[in-house]
Structures are given as C-alpha cells and as structure tokens.
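Worked example 4.2. Below are the chains of a multi-component assembly; read each line carefully before continuing.
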Amino acid sequence: MTQATTGAPAERTTARRRRTTAPGTGRTRLAVTLLVLTALLAVSATAGLAIGSVRVPPAQVWGIVTHALGADWREPDWSRARETIVVDVRAPRVLLGAVTGAGLAVIGTALQALVRNPLAEPYLLGVSSGASLGAVSVIVFGVTLFGPLSLPAAAFAGALGALLLVYATARTGGRITSSRLVLSGVAIAAVLTALLDLLLLTTDRGNEARAVLAWTLGGLGGTDWGTVWLPATALLLGAGALMAQARNLNLLLAGEEAATTMGLDVARFRARLFVLLSLVTGVLVAAAGPIGFVGLMMPHIVRLFVGGDHRRVLPTAALGGAVFLVWADIAARTVAAPTEIPVGVLTALCGGPFFLWLMRRDARRGTEGGVA
Amino acid sequence: MTATELTIAGVTLTAGARHLVRDVSLTARPGETIGLVGPNGSGKSSLLRTVYRVLRPAAGQVRVDGGDAWSLPVRRLARTVAAVVQDPAADFDLAVREVVAMGRTPHKRLLAGDTPEDAEIIDSALLAVDAVHLADHPFDRLSGGERQRVLIARALAQRPTLLVLDEPTNHLDIRHQLSVLDALRRLPATVLLALHDLNLAAYYCDRLYVLHDGEITASGPPAEVLTPRLLAEVYGVAADVTVHPRTGAPQVTFFPGEPRI
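Applying the procedure described above to all two chains together yields the following structure tokens:
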C-alpha cells in the first residue's frame, strides 16, 4: 500500500519521520526544546527590560532585578530613575507580555483540539471580540457590579457567549468542517466588532472611548504591577488544568465516539473546556486587549518540533508564545519610536500570512492524503 | 486478561419516530467471537453504539458481566470494553505510536506518564496488527488500510475483555483482512463485530446474528444461519451455500438473477 504512493508524498513521509522519533529520544528532544526555550525566554525578558527610550545595559538589568528581589548581586551603580524604569515600568509590561503570549498559545492549542480543527484560534473565532465587547460595555456603561473584577468578568461572559455561538453554528451532524468554522468565526467576529464600534461611536464618554480604542487593537502599554497578577494567576491555573487534562485533549483528536470508547465523558469535558478557555481568554483580553494569531501560530510551530501529543505541545507552546510576544512587544515600542504600535497589529502582520500558508498546506494534504 | 460476558436484552433504539433497532436480544459468552451481519442500514452500527455507549437505548438493557453498561462511569467501562469505530481522523501530527498510546488512557491516572509496561503493551498491540514498522510514521499520512490497523491496535492497547468492532476489515486488502481477523480470533477476549463479508464471518465467528430492518431474523452457528433462503429473504439475492473443502466453513457464492425461493 505504501508502495502505491507516488514520489513526492513518500519523500515528505521520510522527512516527517525524522521529526517523530521513538519515545526515549523524544523525551530528550522535549527536554532540550524546553531548556532552549527557557533560556530564550530569559534572554528575551532581559532584552525587554533593557531596550527602550532609555537603554539599560543587560548586566545592569540583572543587577536591578536581583536587587529588587532582595539579593544584592552587585554594588548598586544605577540611578533611582533607571530602577523605576526597569522595575515599575518595564518589568510588569514584559511579564504581562510573557503571560499573555503563553496564555494565548495554550488556549489556541486546546481550542484546536476542542473543535478538532487546526485553524482554530480565539481571535479568528471571534472569542476575543466577544471578550472585548464585554469589557468595553463595562467601561462605556460604567458597570461596577463586581468591583475591580467587573472588566474581566464581563470579558469572560463575552468570550463564553461568542465561543458557544461559533461552536453551535459551525457544527453540523456532530462534525465541524474548516470552512464552516472559519466562516462562522469571521461572521460572528464581524457582528461583535460592529457592535463594539457602535458602542464606541455613540457614547458620550469620548476620552474613555479613545483609551478603549487603543486597547481594542491589543497592546501592553501602560501596564503596572496592579494589572499583572490576575492574568498571571489565570495563566498558572488554566495551563495547570490543561496540562492535567493533556491525555484527554489527545482523546478529543480521535473523535467523539472514539474518545467515549476510551473512557472520556465528552459532553462534560467539552463543557468544562468551554468555561476554562473563555475564562482565561476573558482575563487576558481584559488586561492586554485582543491579540491575534499567537494562538494559531505557536501550536503549529511547536508541533513541528515535538509532535502532536498535548503533554508535549502545551508546555512548549506556552514558552514559545511567551518568547514570541515579548519580542513582538519590544518591536511594538521601538520600530516607530517614539510612537508605539499596538502589538496586536504586529502579531496580525506575522499571523495573517501564516494562516494563509496553513490553509493552503491543509488543502494540499487533503488531496494527497486520499484514503486508499 | 479474561473475557467478558455481554448480554443485550430487548434493546430498542429510536431516532425520532423511526426505529433503528427493535427489541434486539443477543448474548456473547466469554471468549466467543460473535458476528453481526445484515444489509446496509439494518441497524448493525446503531446496535454496536449502544454497547460502547454512544447511543442510549430507548428500551432494554446492555449488560457487561451482569452489570448495566449504561450505569457504569464511562472510564470504568472503557477498561473492560474497547471499540473500533468509523470516525475520520483529525490532522494533528500524531505519530502512530502516540495514537496507539491513547488506548492506555482509561488505565492511567491524571498526569501519570507512560511506564515501560505501557510501552510493552503498545508494542504488542502494534505487532498484532502487523504495524510495528509504522510506529514512528505520522498517522495522518497512512493509507486507509494502515489507519484501520492502527485503530485496531489502539483498541488492543486498551486491554479490553470485550472488543466491539464496526466493519474492522473495511479498507483492508485481503491479506490484512485475514491477518486482522486471525489476530482478533487469537485474543482471549470476547469479540462482537459487524462484518459485510459473509464468508469471513462464516469462517471466523462462533455464532452469527442476522439483522434485518432493525430486528434479528436469525442467529446461531454460521452453518445453520447462512442458507440460500435466508440470503434471499434478507439480502434479496440468489446464492449457493457449500462447504468449503479446506476450512469446512460454509462458503457463500452469489450469482446474478432473481432468487428462486
């Protein structure tokens, strides 16, 4: 049967065989990948703290950071102003960037398993738009029902609503095809974004609206320590919960019936995932605005290195997403300095073409991988 | 590994006003291989779905070793009952070995890694379906027949005492049809499988149940069930049934024209 396949796919198979290796070597490879990414994240964070209108040498960055953590590694030889810039201005921003990048990558990974479709992503499916609409409503209408948690709570509600809507419209006969998924996502995102614009244009609170507008493009500017703790907590809990369910996420890939025969209560698991993913998306969007395509790109890129098993994909994607967004944010505040570009604009610039490539790749595979 | 007794008692399945399966009773004694045959749309797949808990019967009971399969937790049932279902695969870069490893899930605790014992079980499952050489291949690049064998290996990795298979020989070439059925036969587990090929069913199954329009029309050892009269009634075709000179199993030969019974 294998002999029947023609030259090109056969070559591709051997090329891919190198990627997926026996469990022993796979474990080493995973460890190496995680180690490299962790080192990369440390370098990226240092760069994030060092680069900006005031350049701080990396050694000094580490001095300031360790000093702030209570360990004096070297004699303080920096001004108070520099310390403020690194610790109070840049550090929370870099941290939020890393947390948001990791969170979006993890959500994208789980969402792709949930809908069994590699094109899924919170931004493309309108989930981020739902969260934005929820958050903006709170600002525009001045709702303070849950105190400081009103914004993330409304974002969560919006995200959950949008996710359920997309899922319900895209699903026919127990299956979700790529085209229906993307089309429902686009349509629902368009409606939600239109509602968002309507809200912003008709409100009297002009100044607030302008502030919101910058935020709806996705940006990490103006982050302080007060805004970081909630997303960081949400990421730790959310990613932890998903890691614990990694085997079950694998089962979802096998299909609903097959997953049931392997002991997964699919309906219940799916309901919990809906809530969990909306919760983390809502909190992240409330803090950083809707940042697109990180959740699409990271899972795919890391699958090339560690394969499709969620026990490997989740931690790798999280680290990769963190590194990616920290650098995207560095670019956002330096390429057009002193003007700051919303980081969401930059991720879309990378992510859009990636999405197109992915779509074409899947279309090619669809014809090649024809069942014998 | 022991074998499980399966009892389907008066099961009825409805979809809207239509009966998919009507008052079907079936028993598989521990270690038996039971074949479910019948034309397209006769309710074979639906009946199997009540056993692996995808379709809940409107009436009747599915009992696994005496206990109601539908009142057990799904995970507990999955340690006893495995199934090979017809479901398209998603494209997610899983290697064959990872797909087979999924079968270990109902036996694993949260966050527990794969042990050497799991690896051994996965290896022997791959061996049983002649797919060891595919272990590191990407699953979504396999041919239809190779995929089917890997899915059977996944079910074997579950170490079930009852194995339910919906058309397991679909997409397989004749050599692999025989080798897969041989492997199933060798299992100590009880096997319930839907089959299209009556000659394979006759050779490999201890007993057959014939489904027609959602009802059992005949059951028993293949030699008693597979008669020209039954084939005419159920399938509407003309056929001769002889005894295969080598295997001794009934051998069905179809020929064109109206059945004359």
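Take a moment to check your reading of the output against the notes. Chain B touches chain A through 55 residues (CB under 8 Å). Chain B has one domain: 6-255.
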